Each structure stands twice: as structure tokens, then as C-alpha cells.
Amino acid sequence: MQQLGVRGLPEWLIIACGTWLVGLGLYFIFIRPAFLPEDARYMGAGLAALQAVAPQIASWMGKVFTVMGGFMAGTGVLILLVARQEMPLRSRGAILALAVIGALTLGLMSAVNFALQSDFRWLLVVPPVAWAAAMVLHWRRNLG
Description:
Elements: H1 9-30, H2 37-43, H3 47-53, H4 57-86, H5 92-115, H6 126-143
Helix pairs in contact: 1-4, 1-6, 4-5, 5-6
């Protein structure tokens, strides 16, 4: 395995993002409440009003977030595998897959959170920026 340094930085950035996705997924499965204050603010209705018209909405959202968290954590595990085993081999297919994965997971999540004016939007911009930096660094390294 490569050591952390100029040549290993792209892998470490992707490993950090994969680890973050696993942690975020576990947060969604075990900790995240069905509704955050920003959710009610965006929808323009409080939880009590939502429950009045849809009594099981909190239970349903809990299940939705459990499934979504499982997908996040599972994706993070696959990212860790690719970053540790395929990136050092400079596999073009793995890098293309990682670029698409980053856009569809971290990039899309960050963009939607900005559109929703999420309280966490500035925090959620960090992983896609780190991901993009890793892709650029890896691409530049492979040109040489």
C-alpha cells in the first residue's frame, strides 16, 4: 500500500469520504429523527399539523431514513474497497466509477441541501469538494 503523501493523497481523500458516508448512513439508521426543525420550516408546517393529516408520517419517515442510511453506509463500504484496492492500481474503470459515484452521492446530496436551504448545507459541501480534489489529483498523477 502506498504511503500518505503526494502520491497517496487521492486515495486518502476518497477513503475519508467513504468513511464519512458509512458514518452518515449509521446516523440516518440509528440517530436521525424523523423530522428536523429545518424539515418543518421547508414544508411550512409543524410536525403536529403533518401528523394531523398523516398520523403515521413520522414512523414512515423513520423507515425511509433507515433504508436510505443503509444505502449510504453500503455505498461507503464499497467506496472504501475501491479506494484501497483499485485506486493504487490506477484502474481507469475504477476511477470513472468513483467519479460517477461522487457526483451521484455526495454531489447530489450537497446540491439538494443547498436547494432546501438546509442548516447543514455548508458542512455538506466539504465531502464533494474533497472528492473532486481527489479525482483531479488522481487524474493529474496518472498523466505523468
